[in-house]
Amino acid sequence: MNLPPIHLENMNLRITVGGLTLNVPYILFGTFHRSFPEHIHSKRSYELHYVPEGQGTLIANGHSYPVTPGTLFMTGPDVVHEQITNPSDPMSEYCICFELLEHKPARDQKLDSITGAFVQTAFWIGQDTQNLMPLFEQLSFETTRRFIGYHRYVGTLLEQIILKLIRNYRGDQPDVSVPQAPLQTLDDTRLAAIEHSFLYQYRFITVQGLADTLGLSVRQTERTIRQFYGMTFTQKRTMARLNAAAHYLTMTAMTISHIAETVGYSSLEQFCSAFKIQYGMPAGRYRLLRSAQI
To answer: Which domain holds residue 128?
Structure first.
């Protein structure tokens, strides 16, 4: 399989399925040769992942799941997750972010049941049983070639992907629920920038720097972080740094003092205290337990 990478953001794409209205901030496809540290998305974001090739491990809310070709999983609001790729057989992954704008009752009860399943399923993982790969191949074709009308066609493909996703849910739907959230939204660029900043720039990120990136004031930025994540900027940055530290503890032989410095702490004592508060145990013990898990 030789599919081109996809990196689309700020598509200004809205799709509607029954009473469900979704924004699509980004569509990505590529092979990851390094793992993604533990992270969570905003309170209205649902990230669909489909792995056509390669192997690895997904750790979600403290549970470990093997990832093999054909694995499909959804990580929604408040789902803490980490994706660990196999260096000898790295995972390729389609990743589509859906931001919930509105969910209201549909006239068609069956369709309402389908859209309700999407909103209420914050986490699901399993093997695809609905032959999603042709839709993803067509999505890759449309987004790389961009022939006339491709934007509308991509919307149609995404609607079909959602319906097939729900069909996958039907046989194995976990008991999860999604908290209600306000329905205002940021534009696509800002939402993607926030996610990427905390995932990749956790060491040096400042509220002023993020505000400059978003084109907002510091006060607006702080309100936005609290609205989307239910925590302050400082709390979110601390979580991002400690999530990265947990990843290094599990996946590398770096010393704890080196990890503390790498993720942005100037004091080992401060790092150890913060880590114990977030994970309920010292960093050394966490390393031993997680290494035994993987």
So the answer is: 6-169
pLDDT at 6 over 80: yes
Q: Are residues 216 and 149 in the same domain?
A: no
Judgement on whether residues 13 and 158 belong to the same structural domain of the protein: yes
User: What SS3 class is residue 105?
Assistant: coil
What residues does 195 pair with on adjacent strands? none
Query: 33-84 pLDDT, tens per residue?
Result: 888 888 888 888 999 999 999 999 999 988 899 999 999 999 998 899 999 9
- Assess whether 33 and 161 both reside in one domain: yes
Q: Residue 149 has which token pair? A: 């009308």
Gyration radius (Cα) of the chain, Å = 19
The token duo for 272 is 């150890």
Which of 116-120, 185-189, 239-243, 248-252 has the lowest average pLDDT? 185-189
Residue 182 resides in a domain:
no
pTM reported for the whole predicted model? 0.67
Angstrom distance (rounded) from CA 30 to CA 184: 31
**141 and 224 co-located in one domain:** no
Output b/e per residue, 153-185; b: 16+ Cβ within 10 A: bbeebbebbbebbbebbeeeeeeeebeeeeeeb
Residue 177 lies in a domain: no
Q: b/e string for 252-271 if b means 16 or more Cβ within 10 A? A: eeeebeebbbebbbeebeeb
Domain identity same for 233 and 152: no
Q: How far apart are CA 45 and CA 229, in angstroms?
A: 10
E strand segments, 104-165: 123-127
Instruction: Count up the domains in the chain and report the number.
Output: 2
